[in-house]
Backbone:
């Protein structure tokens, strides 16, 4: 299925990306080309194949990955805010939501 | 322990015995990094003050201690770290403007282990933005140049780490490998590049790109140096639930064992179409060389390898679109100005902060995960991924490693593929399979092209077979050193 500039616009919206008209013009054919390249996968019969989700190695899957539910020291408010673009009164300040 | 000491072991021993100091070694590494950075652009940050302070602390510790065997294995060894791995006190930019750069309040587990072993981090290396690229042309801070020929790319995405090792600035460096980002630049820069098994090295503190594919890897000039670093960073970590509870072998101890009788698998179809003829000739010579070393060469088939790029670019972009959703200008990094409302701020921040390749991949990933397309693209790709993994499991019933080229060509020129994303992606045709299957791989320099550019071969092995891959690489390097070095050198 061809990918249009309006599909690109919709996807950019979903991904919280603002793209320019020029970017839209460049990206639409490039993404369309990649997607059509990927369509070669449809020639493989995967009706009986399970998707490869989860840990990849048998040993990885067997490894116990939960830990005891005990309180551990955390980063703390001061350090957590150190890199924030706009910290205020111990919070992350953002522009108005509505 | 290996009969022949590794370069970095020798360095550590000389420091431990007082023949040289950590400060002197660190100083010379820092001087080289600074001197060559105008030419190579390999470093985004060089931490002279911090590195020398650590070196002095190590020298002081050595002076105050009587026993040499109490001095850790990498004491005083300078190392460079890709700028997508967190080091406390230094920047982490991931080659992107959107991080600001970020100054992480913690060390990645691999870094913590390197520091415990006495290594000296001299700086953070340049890379494609968020590790997305095969040429370094996607770094927001300009590309790294290949030390063999500065008109050519160093490969990507860990190009800065590869160039720093190739140019002799540091003996070893860390990178990350999601689809070949350690092995491909290693090949193009003529050094060793090791991607361990998924779950061998903790990803804690490695900025996430494709979480089911990412793995921290090692650059070195010799397999033995790579072994010494892997020895330190490998193993279970409670901060990364995907690290596996598998004992870490003595990589250095295994290094000198004979490779006679080892079975090396070759897939003839992978040496066909699309492969540069000089690379092919070099690989054929390497296969013969392994025969001469006593290995048995067997034919193997990886019937689904031809689908690997398609599968990879579905899974990697889907995972990336999710992982990169966190860059929103709220908690750290860059925030766009003059956005009246929250949603505008998100969009402007991400528009101004991300470069074109990252945007392209986020959009592709968002597309394949979106309603109506998930089954056709993402789920389909995960099913074919199962088939690719099965191909490897079957191949490894017949052989101990599969030998392929690492990259289809030697280093190409800047600008050659930058406008054609699909052509750029096809560079990764030999490397992405290992990430999809989770198996380890190593790129080993195996020749020079007629233009004097390095060519690399790749050895892929079963899960947890790093010791055997390093041993095969070591056996080859002992007999067939590259015999030349790059033009730009410390």
Residues:
């Amino acid at each position: 299925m061809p990918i249009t500039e309006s599909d690109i616009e919709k996807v950019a919206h979903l991904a919280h990306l603002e793209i320019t008209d020029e970017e839209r013009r460049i990206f639409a054919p490039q993404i369309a080309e990649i997607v059509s390249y990927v369509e070669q996968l449809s020639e493989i019969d995967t009706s009986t194949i399970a998707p490869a989700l989860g840990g990849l190695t048998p040993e990885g899957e067997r490894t116990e990955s939960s830990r005891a539910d005990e309180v551990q020291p955390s980063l703390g408010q001061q350090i957590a805010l150190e890199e924030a673009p706009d910290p205020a009164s111990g919070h992350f300040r953002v522009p108005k939501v509505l | 322990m290996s009969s022949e000491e590794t370069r970095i072991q020798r360095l550590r021993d000389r420091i431990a015995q007082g023949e040289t100091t950590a400060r002197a070694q660190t100083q010379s590494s820092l001087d080289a990094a600074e001197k060559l950075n105008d030419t190579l652009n390999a470093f985004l940050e060089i931490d002279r003050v911090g590195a020398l302070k650590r070196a002095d602390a190590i020298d002081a510790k050595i002076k105050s201690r009587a026993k040499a065997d109490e001095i850790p294995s990498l004491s005083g060894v300078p190392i460079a770290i890709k700028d997508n791995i967190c080091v406390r006190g230094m920047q982490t930019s991931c080659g992107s403007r959107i991080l600001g750069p970020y100054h992480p309040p913690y060390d990645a587990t691999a870094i913590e282990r390197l520091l415990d072993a006495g290594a000296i981090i001299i700086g953070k290396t340049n890379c494609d933005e968020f590790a997305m690229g095969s040429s370094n042309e996607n770094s927001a801070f300009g590309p790294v140049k290949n030390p063999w020929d500065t008109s050519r790319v160093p490969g990507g995405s860990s190009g800065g780490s590869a160039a720093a090792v190739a140019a002799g600035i540091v003996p070893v460096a860390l990178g990350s490998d999601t689809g070949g980002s350690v092995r491909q630049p290693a090949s193009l820069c003529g050094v060793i590049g090791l991607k361990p098994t998924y779950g061998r090295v903790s990803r804690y503190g490695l900025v996430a790109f494709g979480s089911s594919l990412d793995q921290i890897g090692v650059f070195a000039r010799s397999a033995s140096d790579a072994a010494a670093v892997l020895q330190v960073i490998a193993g279970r970590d409670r901060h990364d639930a995907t690290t596996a509870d598998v004992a870490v072998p003595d990589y250095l101890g295994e290094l000198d064992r004979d490779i006679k009788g080892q079975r090396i698998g070759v897939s003839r179809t992978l040496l066909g179409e699309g492969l540069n003829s000089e690379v092919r000739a070099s690989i054929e010579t390497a296969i013969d060389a392994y025969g001469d070393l006593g290995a048995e060469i067997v034919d193997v088939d990886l019937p689904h390898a031809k689908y690997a790029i398609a599968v990879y670019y579905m899974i990697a972009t889907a995972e990336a679109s999710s992982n990169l959703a966190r860059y929103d200008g709220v908690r750290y990094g860059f925030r766009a100005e003059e956005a009246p409302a929250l949603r505008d701020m998100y969009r402007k921040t991400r528009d101004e902060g991300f470069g074109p390749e990252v945007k392209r991949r986020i959009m592709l990933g968002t597309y394949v995960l979106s309603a109506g397309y998930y089954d056709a693209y993402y789920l389909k790709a995960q099913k074919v991924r199962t088939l690719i993994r099965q191909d490897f499991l079957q191949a490894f019933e017949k052989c101990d490693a599969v030998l392929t080229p690492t990259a289809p060509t030697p280093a190409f020129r800047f600008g050659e593929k930058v406008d054609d994303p699909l052509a750029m992606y096809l560079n990764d045709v030999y490397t992405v399979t290992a990430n999809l299957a989770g198996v380890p791989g190593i790129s080993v320099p195996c020749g020079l092209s007629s233009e004097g550019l390095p060519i690399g071969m790749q050895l892929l092995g079963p899960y947890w077979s790093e010791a055997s891959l390093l041993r095969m690489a070591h056996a080859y390097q002992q007999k067939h050193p590259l015999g030349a070095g790059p033009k730009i050198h410390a």
Notes: Residues 1 and 97 of chain A are 37 Å apart (CA to CA). The radius of gyration of chain A is 23 Å.
